[in-house]
Amino acid sequence: MGAAPFLAATLPVLDLAVASVAAVRDAAARAGRFDAGPPPEPERVAAAFASDRLLRVDGAPVDGFAPLSGFFRTADGWVRTHANYPHHRARLLTLLDLPASADGTATRDAVVAALATQSAQDVEDRAAQCGAIAVRVRTEDAWRASAPGRATASGPPVRTVVREDAAPARPLGSGPRPLAGLRVLDLTRVIAGPVATRTLALLGADVLRVDPPGLPEIEVQHLDTGQGKRSALLDLATRDGLARAQGLLEEADVLVTGYRPGAIEAFGLRLPSGAVHARVSAWGDDGPWAGRRGFDSIVQAASGVALVEGSRGGTACAPEDAAPGALPAQALDHATGYLVAAGVVEALTDRTTDGRGREVDGALARTARALLAAPGRDPAHGAPHVPGAGCVVDHPARLDGRDVAATTTRPALDRLAGAPLDDYPAPARPWGADAPRWAA
């Protein structure tokens, strides 16, 4: 899609990226009643999708993955682990019967040795039981034939269902900020959900992200995806925290959740009539893996994407005969985030005529299926081009209690209603630094 091989890969990643951002542009144009304008600029889109690789703190790049996250050989294939968060790292060590070292980590060599003697399927099964994050690396065919693969084999990446409940219809604004005056309660983490809510903030919404105080976010990650929002802490496991969260939700137009299906509902939050509820999950809300944890890299590994991008170029060989690889960006996360944002904007626009609530459901595994099914594979691709300096912007920021200079990417949307978009409404606020209340 264009001459410059931004996001170059075997799979047509740039096509997926530009299409997902174009979906937001089109939804915003319909909501704000303006001309959609030209297609998104591929270089800006590519930069936004690879934002973690372009992120700089005091001029230094940031490593997005912890030492115990990655591909590991097993006795009969490969697994991919995710241990960026301390609680996931601890569960992985427990799974492998490894002690934590004095500084709270175990060496990668010890994990390599432990996994080398085990079955990939056994590791995946036991990880699911104990809450660790590890999946068997599969071929496309193996994923399609599996029960969780079949569950994600139909329907688009994002699905919308109209509910029966309704409230008085609420009009949207006109122009490039059609969501001005609307409130979005953001209960998401990591990338896909925060990208969706960051996009809603770009379109004018008052977005308040709420996290539990006992589950700290990786602050540099929040720096990369928290633009335009405020960030507060509430413990929904306490009576007061749940009551305050319910009060916020009662005044919200949109609730966006990024935890496993049912995790937020288990606290007893009640969605107000007419609200839009958007969900982002790894595996969707049906099928045998609906309740499992997952991240972009994990979905790539399980769905066949990793072997397509690996050393054998997508041939249908056994996992033990191929070295897995990865997409040049966490494209499943970003694309799903933009598609969910587009679905929310469409739902809010449709709500202006009937006042009815809607469910918007996005799943990384369905986005992976769409990418694998898309035409235009290029096994002979070269290395991805790095987007230019015009795609990033510098800001002062607070990170881990200190003042830093942060370099983050500009919005994937380079213009709306003919007006250029050079940056988000505001840089990311320090994680958890705001009061749990609406701006106005």
Automatic annotation (TrEMBL):
Name by which UniProt lists this protein: CoA transferase
A UniProt-annotated Pfam family: CoA_transf_3
Renumbered residue ranges of the record's region Disordered: 417-440
Organism of provenance: Cellulosimicrobium cellulans
Domain of life: Bacteria
Gene3D superfamilies: Crotonobetainyl-coa:carnitine coa-transferase, domain 1, formyl-coa transferase, domain 3
Coiled coil: none
Family annotation (PANTHER family): BLR3030 PROTEIN, SUCCINYL-COA--D-CITRAMALATE COA-TRANSFERASE
Database matches in InterPro entries: CoA-transferase_III, CoA-Trfase_fam_III, CoA-Trfase_III_dom3_sf, CoA-Trfase_III_dom_1_sf
